[in-house]
Amino acid sequence: MRMMQAQEAVGRIKAPEGENQPSTEVDLFVSTEKIMVLNTDLQEIMMDHSLRTISYIADIGDILVIMARRRLLSSPGDESLRRKKQAKILCHVFESDEAQLIAQSIGQAFQVAYMEFLKANGIDDPGIIKEMDYQDVLNQQEIMGEELNLFTNKDFHREVIVPKLKGEPIGIVIVESGWGSMVPTVVLANMAPSGPAARCGGLNIGDQIISINGVSMVGLPLSTCQTYIKGARQQTVVKLTVVPCPPVVEVLIKRPDVKYQLGFSVQNGVICSLLRGGIAERGGVRVGHRIIEINNQSVVAVQHEKIVALLANSVGEIHMKTMPTSIFRLLTGQETPHYL
Q1: What sign does the dihedral 30-33-35-40 (CA atoms) show?
Q2: Given 78, 163, 290, 301, which is the most exposed site by the fewest CB atoms within 10 A?
Q3: What angle do CA 6, 185, 59 make, to 5 degrees?
Q4: Nearest to 278 by CA among 111, 158, 112
Q5: Cα separation of 332 and 325, whole Å?
Q6: How far, rounded to the nearest angstrom, does the alpha carbon of residue 328 sit from its chain's CA centroid?
Q7: Which DSSP letter does residue 153 get?
Q8: pTM flag (> 0.90)
Q9: Residues 106, 10: one domain?
Q10: Is residue 123 part of a domain?
Q11: pLDDT tens digits, residue range 237-273?
Q12: Which of 12, 39, 35 is nearest to 24 (CA)?
């Protein structure tokens, strides 16, 4: 899904055929603390992101895409806004003959920053400074989840007919499946207790919605999917194609030693960035998911520092349970559902 969003960003800024795309020559600086972009001519700072806020990097031919989280500011008393919009994603698109090399350099900055983190926490093994043969670790990491099988095999698809009154909302809340999903879809996060979706008896929280009235919703932005669902309000029968899935995702990461980075970062229990192609992505980790358990130990009420320490020191098979943060907040009453 992340790659699709990167390609979408490139497509949005692409100039119409026969026209040139306006661009600005820039200098890119990468360190273990931040990524900065300066206007080459004016030496003005055009981009300044802490490395920990970078959630995705992609090289597509001679195009480099960098996605970064930026926390939204709100007034101290605006608690509802702070909960709903804690951060937004900024997407930066660069063109360079060395796009792949730049992406690799940023990846190396993450690796060095990780080793510095280990040393700062007392994990100082001489072997860490040796070149990491990460490919061997990747080869041992199986791709978790049966998503591809579930979505490609129509035997697992289920058509659900939702009868309703004209003008009546379907009565569901949907959220994104999370960056890192093998197939990007929207997930049924909640249902109005007396709404049509709940009354029909064929839907469950966690179901991934493939289409509505024959229109595919795979790979579409959440806002577009919400528009399609709202557009069915005037109909008296709505047909949904879903893949039944539990709301909790099982993650298994195989990490032979602490010197091999897990490849994702956590903030207050929420996975906020993920290394493309790393063992975590293969193991089922998804951006935007809330970690519920680590090795059969609940971390729902555990402080951020303890979660980080627990992950940093875990080796062997690391089992986790996660779910989309929006579903977690809805199920725990931290967020008020707004039904479509």
Answers
A1: negative
A2: 301
A3: 15
A4: 111
A5: 10
A6: 15
A7: -
A8: no
A9: yes
A10: no
A11: 999 999 888 889 889 999 888 878 788 888 889 888 7
A12: 39
